Amino acid sequence: MEIGIVGLPNVGKSTLFNAITKAGAECANYPFCTIEPNVGIVPVPDERLANLAKLYNPEKVTPAVVKFVDIAGLVKGASKGEGLGNKFLSHIREVDAIVQVVRCFENENITHVDGTIDPLRDIETINLELIFADLETLDKKLDRAIKMARADKKHQLEVDTLNKIKVALDAGKLASSVELTDEEKESISDLFLLTSKPMMYVGNLSEEQLKDSENDLYFKKLNEYAKANNTEAIPLCVKIEEELATLEDSEKKEMLELMGITEPGLDKLIKSSYKLLGLMSFLTAGEPEVRAWTIKIGTKAPAAAGKIHSDIERGFIKAEVISYDELMEMGSLAKAREKGLVRFEGKDYIMQDGDVVLFRFNV
Length: 363
Prior knowledge:
- By secondary structure, this protein is an alpha/beta fold.
- The protein has helices at residues 13-21, 47-56, 85-92, 119-151, 156-170, 182-187, 207-211, 217-228, 238-244, 249-259, 265-276, 301-308, 310-314, 324-330, 333-338; strands at 2-6, 38-43, 60-62, 65-70, 97-103, 199-204, 233-236, 279-285, 289-296, 316-323, 343-345, 355-361.
- It is built from 15 helices and 12 strands.
- It has a 6-stranded mixed beta sheet, sandwiched between helices. A 3-stranded mixed beta sheet has the order 3-9-8, with helices on both faces. The chain has a 3-stranded antiparallel beta sheet with strand order 11-10-12.
- Strand 8 (279-285) and strand 9 form a beta hairpin.
- Helix 1 (13-21) packs parallel to helix 9 (238-244).
């Protein structure tokens, strides 16, 4: 799963990417410093793995991961090829969800492409370019669908659905705001509109703003906008996060305590991105390895087993399951078995976040 980090030039995208991945993406105070997308695979913070490792003393510990892609800055007219627009749009089509980095800090030494700080204006600029690009895609698709519907009425549902989305896009709304039935979604499953992707926001604040982000004028506007659109806005000081990323764990903890911060903002972002994609983790634990496996919320046991190996899914018999909390309370799997807390689940079992599982199979 890939998360695209997008935003106008000079809002802190590449600095945020550096902090997330420690990959050293080049940063500079001019537009289009990022031309090709930088990609980084980062672990999902999960304290459960460290605690399980204390029980099992495994040879290795493997966390779940999320892939972040740092995409070139967007400007007005990108959908028409302005700036690096075409590259931007081709790269963003490939991601599963979008994090918009929005500038909330003021700094006369760092140029804003529009001259002033206005988070909602910046979001509108990005959204409009995505909408314009989607309209072009949709119009081409609609022309073909209308011709096919004339020859075969079974394509009429596709035409009606496309028109329904077009009305929203023409009104300046995102495709994700349109409520569709399962049948309507299926009829346009190959459309891949940019504005249909899950989206969340990062407000890049100064250190002073971060201390009271709830009352910061710029972030309040951003947060209200996010809530109105059923998503999340996370306050960050990207410069602080970049510094934290260079520290050892003990130094990082000390710095957080001095600043009165309970958790790095990047940890919140990574966890929220995981949630945005509708993902969760189940766990496997033993002496060889303690590991978190990524699955979609609502996944059944055999499909979860297939994440480990296709043979396990094909030969699935049952799953031995205990919740992480119960296992930690008992202190060992043996004690949990004695208490009857280990369950045997079949093919219809829907996996829960934090399930510690041993799959039984035969091939």
